[in-house]
Amino acid sequence: MKKNFGELIWSSFLEIQGVLIGFIGILITIILSRLPVKTQIPLDLVIAIALFMLLLVVTLIKASYQSFKTAQELSQLQKSVIPKILYVSKEPSSQAPFQLRCLLGNSALFSNDTCISFYYTDDEGFERLIGMGVVLTVQDNGKVQALLDIPLLGYQEILEKLGNNDLKIIGQTIVKSNITRKMMLDYLFNLE
């Protein structure tokens, strides 16, 4: 992936054989300048400018296409990394009123026994941490079974709706494979 616009333009220029086309344009200009041409604007200058403009247009088209393709690939990669929640079931628990077992879509980020966090995106667009859990297993078909076993206070209503498979809440809840050190330390020190 190119780091900046200049690198993208330069690589596109090289890929369309810009050096070769530029050399041919200069060669044609030199040859035509030796021939007698009787016009107001020298034909060799017109050809050189036309070749330069053609080179510029083709380079920009190639760079735009490459940029568009890269953006699409990044979008697809991002969609495949963070899995969607497919189904949620309530599991009885001795420590909490219930735990949530979630079936997630495929994701390359998750593996067995990975710590994960659950976020709810509110109506204003802010992601709120609603709980933490663990990946139970990655099934043969790639789907992920996860357990939300550490619900955070203040989000009981959202967790209830999530446990009841409320489609709106499921659509606004995402699972990430990140647990910060602060979250883990807070949890560990609150156990005692």
UniProtKB/TrEMBL annotation:
Transmembrane segments: 12-33, 45-65
Keywords assigned by UniProt, alphabetized: Membrane, Transmembrane, Transmembrane helix
Organism domain of life: Bacteria
Name assigned to this protein: Uncharacterized protein
Organism for this UniProt entry: Phormidium pseudopriestleyi FRX01
